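User: Can you write out an input/output pair for a complex, sequences first and structure second?

Assistant: Here is one pair. Inputs:
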Amino acid sequence: DSGVTQTPKHLITATGQRVTLRCSPRSGDLSVYWYQQSLDQGLQFLIQYYNGEERAKGNILERFSAQQFPDLHSELNLSSLELGDSALYFCASSGDAGTHYNEQFFGPGTRLTVL
Amino acid sequence: KNEVEQSPQNLTAQEGEFITINCSYSVGISALHWLQQHPGGGIVPLFMLSSGKKKHGRLIATINIQEKHSSLHITASHPRDSAVYICATGSARQLTFGSGTQLTVLP
């Protein structure tokens, strides 16, 4: 158990809908990262938050947004869903510096299926 | 743009064999990560290294910064080592992932 929690574990929805994925980092970790893992693209970095502020942005679509709350949990919002958004979404957390030099601990993932 | 290439894509071994998975990248990096993804999907960090060699149990990771290459070795492989092994390069802004190596260890 990494100490990172994600809810829900599974999510099935329809095209055009909006969903919210939730992540709670390990106790004491200030950085949260979001990743998407699809069959054709592999693991891709989406976005990072550090202590409530956006720190780095990767291949995140404009239909997707995220935020980190004062209690450090984070939410990833996916809207106008398309079939191609079906994937495993992971969040990870790391300790202090908020860069990619630190070991990251991954949550169990949310499997999103868009029908 | 940093490209991360892993080889082989798939690897089947007999229990007890010595296994090597390779990772090459195209630009200078700050750190290289090795991750293990279990059949159920969970991802576990194995190593983070920026130079030399690290060992943890039967796993050894090495990196050659000049050649932009890293290897993950598993000694005395066991069926429970069956998983996808992913290397990822770390820069100031993000991790870039290889496509993974599917390892199957047969009893």
